[in-house]
Amino acid sequence: MNHRYHFGLIKVDASAVVLVGMTHSVVLWGGSLKEENIIKPGAASGFKHIPGSSGLPLFGHTFQFISDPIKTTLKLYEKHGPVFRTNVFFLDVVNVIGPEAVKAVLADPDKNFSSKLAIEAFVKDFIGRAILARDFEDHRYHRRIMQSAFKSGPMKTYQIRMTPHIALGLSRCEKDRYFLFHPFIKRLSLRLASEIFLGLEEGGDLDTINAALVTMMNGAIAPIRLKIPGLAFNEGLVKRKVIADYISKLIVERRANPSMDMLSEFCNAKSEQGEQFSDSDIIDHMLFMWLAAHETTTSLLCHVMYRICQFPEWQNRLREECCGIGKAAIDYEDLPKLEQMDWVIKETLRMHPPAPLTMRTALRECEFYGYHIPANTMISIGPGVSHFLKEFWTEPEKFDPQRFSSERAEDKSHSHAYVPFGGGAHTCIGMHFASMEAKAILYQMLLNHSWQTPEGYDPKFTMMPIPKPKDNLPILMKDLPRRSRLH
Ligand code: HEM
Questions:
Q1: The overall pTM is greater than 0.85
Q2: Which of 5, 120, 143, 268 lies 20 to 30 A from 413 at CA?
Q3: pLDDT value at position 273?
Q4: Where are the domains of the chain?
């Protein structure tokens, strides 16, 4: 049976009800929600004993949440403590906030909380059986195999492949006049992903596949989840099939002749126990990589750029660090030398986490923090909210990269105080990849160019579906005077 909800004159099926969930901070709306997973809207079903409220009639806390999920959740945390209920996007949700409580859900020693059920409720059509849609032993099996594509050998190769594309992207930037940084960096990061994940070269199928990927990703986050031709959701699914068929053909080639890309790694990866992926596993895992990697890395780089323009002293410090390395582009071995850049990236991820919240579903009735949690309860976990708690950070509202230096090490105040990449079994498998890509791009950007935002620039940020400056970050790139240039 399908639930039908009425919103004014609009009548939709439960499978099309606008819901929200978050993985990688992409707000994933809607999805084919199964009857047994539906928590009835409105009255806090079965967990009224948990502190909190259902907010406004019908809309609950949705509007506050859309405008700023971190600030909204922080306020409620201050009022109710680490576990409280809200109603967001017509769903009653139990929120878990603060390092200790977040750790308890993410570590999940009693196997009470499912990532699979939570993510399937939102994006099943798009992610198939991707790794985030797997739990416990099944998840561990896939993660063991996938891990080999992120070891230092393949990572070095990915880094080498990135270098010329970053240089080419930069050479196409307009100099001495303002351009929008967000679309620029989004194109560059898509280009890098297609090169590294699938080994697609300039020309050939690259443009067709990149265009299909953009349509697929827009479909995955589309608010209206109906399979009607012309709607973004439906077009996204059509393109997903196109890309899946394309990858399917590439798998045959890469199994026979491995190349230096992630697809080849997946085709030939074996865990220490000798386990391997099937073709359909590879397709689901590859497609999820884009959803996981692309928008998050774009969001990170956009916010780093904003911050180093806001604090030119940090821009200069990073440039000096780059000049100290003294080459046109970095190698994998140079990454640890960029210590201050590491602090700036970390501080940006602390203040602007691309994935501030993530979701799980209670598999069974359980006790959590002394509260009874009914089966099928949607749990919203806020790792990113911990980044603003005064108990763990000095002046959390201040941009202060130095807090990550070994002398201060504020991120070490609790194992889950700093968790931009999540924690527990589903911790981001691409966290080093993301940091490597960010460093490789920033290095080339800073070496011979200066960057600035307009005088008195004070951007507003959209938080959903993924954090970014509302105006796409106007930016001015200038060549550095010859004498201070390295190349
Ligand atoms: C700044 C960039 C990134 C951020 C902030 C980020 C954040 C996260 C977070 C918070 C999770 C855990 C989700 C959960 O527990 O529900 C996650 C999982 C994941 N991420 Fe990332 N991510 C980033 C970049 C990447 C990149 C570049 C890749 C791939 C190259 C990637 C691949 C994945 C995958 C496959 C998972 C699922 C892991 C599993 O289920 O075992 N991510 N990411």
A1: yes
A2: 143
A3: 84
A4: 142-355+434-484
